[in-house]
Amino acid sequence: MEKETQKWTTVIRPHTGWFDINIKEVWDYRDLIMLFVKRNFIVTYKQTILGPLWVVVSPLITSVIFTVVFGGIAQISTEGAPQFLFYMAGNAVWSFFSTCLTGTANTFTNNAGLFGKIYFPRLVQPVSQVLTSLANFGIQFCMFLIFWVYFLFNPSVEGGVVRPNLWILALPFILIMVMAFGLGMGIIVSSLTTKYRDLAVVVGFGVSLWMYATPVVYPMSQLDSSPTLKILVGLNPMTGPVQAYRYALLGCGSVSVGALLYSLVWTAAVLTLGVVLFSRIEKTFMDTV
Amino acid sequence: MAKRESTRPETVISIRDVKKQYKLGQIGGGTLTADLQSWWARIHGREDPNTIVGTDTRLWGTKFMALNGVSFDVYKGEAVGIIGRNGAGKSTLLKILSRITAPTEGEICIKGRVASMLEVGTGFNGEMTGRENIYMNGTILGMTKAEINAKLDEIIEFSECAEFIDTPVKRYSSGMFVKLAFSVAAHLDSEIMVMDEVLAVGDMKFQKKCLGRMSDAANQEGRTVLYVSHNMSTIRQLCDRCIVLDQGRVIYDGDVEKAIALYMDSSNVNVPHYDLVNVGRSTTGAGTRLQLQSLDFLDCEATVFPREKPVRIRIKWYANEAFKGVNLKLNLHRRDSTPIGITHPVDLGPTEPGQVYETTFSLDASMFGEGQYFFYLDMFEGVVGQGVCLDKPNVEFSFEITGTDLLVPQWHVGWGPIHFKPVIVDEQKRI
Fold first, then answer.
1. A25 interaction partners in chain B (CB closer than 8 Å)
2. What are phi and psi of B343, to 5 degrees?
3. What are the 10-residue block averages of pLDDT along chain B, 431 residues in total?
């Protein structure tokens, strides 16, 4: 009788539209996002000897190995930048992207227990995963800066030169783009893995293969001899950000606004598709997972 | 717990013709290739290569309605119990209400924040301390950090875990774990609380505390509680309205006692017949010279007896030898094994060897308060405490006493199990 006058806070209906996405609700749960980030840290590093040091130890070792294998044994050029910094920078951006992707790719399957018992905006989970990756990246970046400053003031060491430039100001934008791209890819995969588990396997090795299609361990100039390869690598949306990141900090290679815009279009498309798909799946995934 | 009369009830939950359909059989092939194969076969009119040979595929894809048109309104401040057999749709309804899954048809409108507790300790992480988990669990349940800060002390105190609050919860005993978890849930500020049998946690004392807290929430703070349980006595204590679900439909909505009676009637879970021939005996030699063979509760629906009627029981027993006297007594206790008392022995002898006897007897129920009671049957020779046990099957027989008394409309658990007869007034005069 008085229903017309009432204002409902929540209306639960069967099939809501494709674009029924409640971003404001995710914002309301920002405390939960931060707690998830904190939890991810606590859970990963509790009862380990090195604790959070692992965040810097693993990229350090990876960079050393890359330097030895690709720089030392394979003699791949680093376009005048110190080899160690070249690999460290490339690896940092790439691992940031890959942890964003793999961390969110199993959102539904890994959290089925939690999601099956309680409602909160499901996007909270992937967003907090990505922020965890960002925090890890931040720690790694600090370590990078130490080496970077060292090479900056000791240009003669190892022959490489560091030539930072104004593109440094664009770094936050580039990183946000990488993060959004990883998040978008991850939530698309997570939405599809509720039904098709094979994708989880594909993502595992797919990401490590994808790295070789991105100029992480080699500079773009290395591909000058093969125009086909150059075009193919250029089509990779991650090429632009990796190139730009390295150019801004080390001054090696080149940066192209076109490539960055191309990546931006990809990011926007993937993220939109991801969020739409994710919101679609989250309502009924408990019945299919 | 007096029932509240609200002059103008405000609807806080409005459920309109909600249906939830599940497909029987396998959902999808599980892998992308299998689904593509099935799809390819379907559009080409061939047989699906992924069906299991020899299985009846007719049932596959058959629709199963977990909820088949459920409609009701819940008003502000009500404590509504939802009961029904397993598979009646209770949990599905709660899942839809708490937005874990979406309905297939219908609409639910909710006014206010919903805190759903389908499990205690959702999101608890063993590596994190009690304090950290309070924040974690609280925010998952929809509180903000500031709200938790304001209530932290109260939560810790309620949980009775104050001295362990900075210890990782993986070191907690399971009892402490649920106490802490429930404390967080009990301090939610939400206007609507949805609970699935979560009160069955912790020790008796804590359970009582939880129930009290919940009924306070409904009675004094004007919050709305939706409670699903198989435990009728908690339903009785907490709820002032009860809905019975059966096969995805509401079959009754209204008075708690009538709902419980209907549910007890529709569910044949408590069949009051016990076969005692093959059950264990804890005393050596019991059951050999004399054997209790069966026990039936008479004149009742699912062993529920109103207080004004006696509890009628029929036993069959076999005497292997001639006894001069055989005594029978009942050892009564409560759910938690707290003894209540024994009945004065009654002599059923003498017996003839090799004879089966059928004995019907009554127990005066007027001395019980409302609730569930348990007893062991003890047949012995001689004096209580010094005699020889002839038979005592290891079976807890249980019955439930319901009371409708104008002077004592509701029995409070805290009063204990015995409903004594009124005192005898010897004298009264004007002074």
1. none
2. -85, 155
3. 54 89 60 69 65 48 77 89 84 87 88 81 80 87 87 88 86 82 81 76 72 80 86 82 88 86 63 76 82 84 78 90 90 86 90 90 88 89 84 87 75 83 90 87
* Residue A249, amino acid: L
Residue-wise DSSP of B387-419 = SEEEE-BS--EEEEEE---SS--S--GGG-SB-
pLDDT tier at A175 (50, 70, 90 boundaries)? very high
Residue B261 dihedral angles phi and psi, to the nearest 5°: -60, -45
CA angle B369, B374, B375 (to 5 degrees): 120
Which residue in B96, B428, B270, B337 sits closest to A119, CA to CA? Answer: B96
Of B35, B110, B128, the CB nearest to A10: B110
Whether residue A287 and residue B22 make contact (CB cut-off 8 A), yes or no, is yes
**CA dist., res. B211 & res. B41, Å (int):** 57
Q: State how far residue A59 is from chain B, nearest Cα, in angstroms.
A: 26
Which chain A residues touch B26 with a CB distance below 8 Å? none
The residue that leads in pLDDT, A177 or B409, is: A177
CB-CB under 8 Å, B30 with A196:
yes
Give the one of A3, A31, A286 whose C-beta lies nearest to B101's C-beta. A286
Other CB atoms within 10 A of residue B159 CB: 25
In chain A, which residues have their Cβ closer than 8 Å to the Cβ of B118?
Answer: 117-118
Taking the Cβ of residue A284 and every Cβ of chain B, the question of whether any pair is shorter than 8 Å is answered with yes
> Taking residues A124-149, what's their average pLDDT?
91
Domain range annotation of chain A: 19-288
Residue of A nearest to B129 (CA): A42
Residues 65-124 of chain A whose Cβ lies under 8 A from any Cβ of chain B: 114-120
What's the number of CA atoms in the CB half-sphere (13 Å) around residue A194?
A: 22
Structural domains in chain B, sorted by start: 11-26+63-266 (3.40.50.300), 273-415 (2.70.50.60)
Q: B76 with B27: CB under 8 angstroms?
A: no
Q: Is residue B114 within a helix (H) or strand (E), and if so which, with residue range? A: strand B114-117
Q: Give residue-wise pLDDT tens across range A46-99.
A: 767 777 777 888 889 999 999 888 888 888 887 778 888 888 999 999 999 999
Residue type, B231: N
Q: In the structure encoding, which two tokens stand for residue B56, read together?
A: 């009846």
Query: A39 vs B136: CB contact, 8 Å cut-off?
Result: yes
Q: For residue A117, which phi and psi values (nearest 5 degrees)?
A: -115, -20
Per-residue pLDDT at A19: 65
CB contact under 8 A, A117 and B106: no
Cα–Cα distance for residue pair B239/B78, rounded to 1 Å: 8
Helix ranges, A14-53 (H)? 23-28, 30-45
What are residue A176's phi and psi, to 5 degrees?
-60, -40
The whole-angstrom distance between B31's CA and the closest CA on chain A is 5
Rounded to whole angstroms, the Cα distance separating A67 from A69 reads 6
| Residue A200 touches chain B, beta carbons under 8 Å | no
Distance CA A8, CA B99 (A): 15
A-to-B residue pairs, Cβ atoms closer than 8 angstroms: 121
pTM reported for the whole predicted model = 0.69
